[in-house]
Amino acid sequence: MTARSSSWVRTGKFAATALVLLFTLFPVYFMLSTALNGRASSGTDSLFPTHFTMGHFSKVMSSGASGGFGRYMVNSAIVTVIVVVASGVLALLGAVAMARFRFRLRTTVLVLILVVQMLPAEALVIPLFLQMKDLRMLNSLLGLAVVYTAFALPFAIWNLRGFVAAVPVELEEAAYLDGCSWWRMFRSVLLPLVVPGLIATSAFSFVLAWEEFTFALTFLSDQNRMTVGVGLAEFLGQNTNDWGGLMAASTLVTIPVVIVFVLAQRRLTMGLVAGAVK
Length: 278
Prior knowledge:
Layout: H1 3-35, H2 55-62, H3 69-100, H4 106-118, H5 125-134, H6 141-166, H7 169-177, H8 182-193, H9 195-210, H10 214-219, H11 228-233, H12 243-267, H13 274-277
Helix pairs in contact: 1-12, 2-12, 3-6, 3-9, 4-6, 6-9, 7-8, 9-12
């Protein structure tokens, strides 16, 4: 390959990378520019803020229910923490059972778990509403967290099963020979090796619970218990839309998601060989 052709290849790669970044980051830029644009509420379609202001953020945090949009974020945070912890613990135990124990209809159970994941959430709104009503868990953040956990578990179990199955059984047997109990083996050998999968499934559960709209709108009636998914809809009216407020609220909702994925990306490779080293 000549120097000129090599230069063209590098230029082509640079141009392709720039286009991908532009396509990926433009929505984020438009969201931020609209949130900081003082004339965004009037329906301007300018790509650049004409009047820089932080007023949209102040308005968002003071509007809505008691405590403003921050109240919605706190509610979503409570639900999300419950879902991430509950789905992580239950999915890890289920994945260990599916990967390590042999029992009748094991393959059928795995297939059913995958089939449940394929069911559209909209088809289950009414049955779940009636069930939660019978359990007296409507208009409850805990009830909403239970529903989200049920939807997160199929994918979490299926995903974690692959991580658990990839851990050599010989490591567990060696731990037993060294005098470890099952709990000590699980904590010191198996758990560090499946941390990457646990982080990945926790990130999925976080996204599912943080911005979900349909179930939150259906199951919650108290304005002070609404989550951010429902709170964002308040900026959309029948005749006019508050684009500045909507984009400011969207920015606030996006920040925790970005933080979670940055931390998950950094820690995704941690623990891959920690159990074997110990």
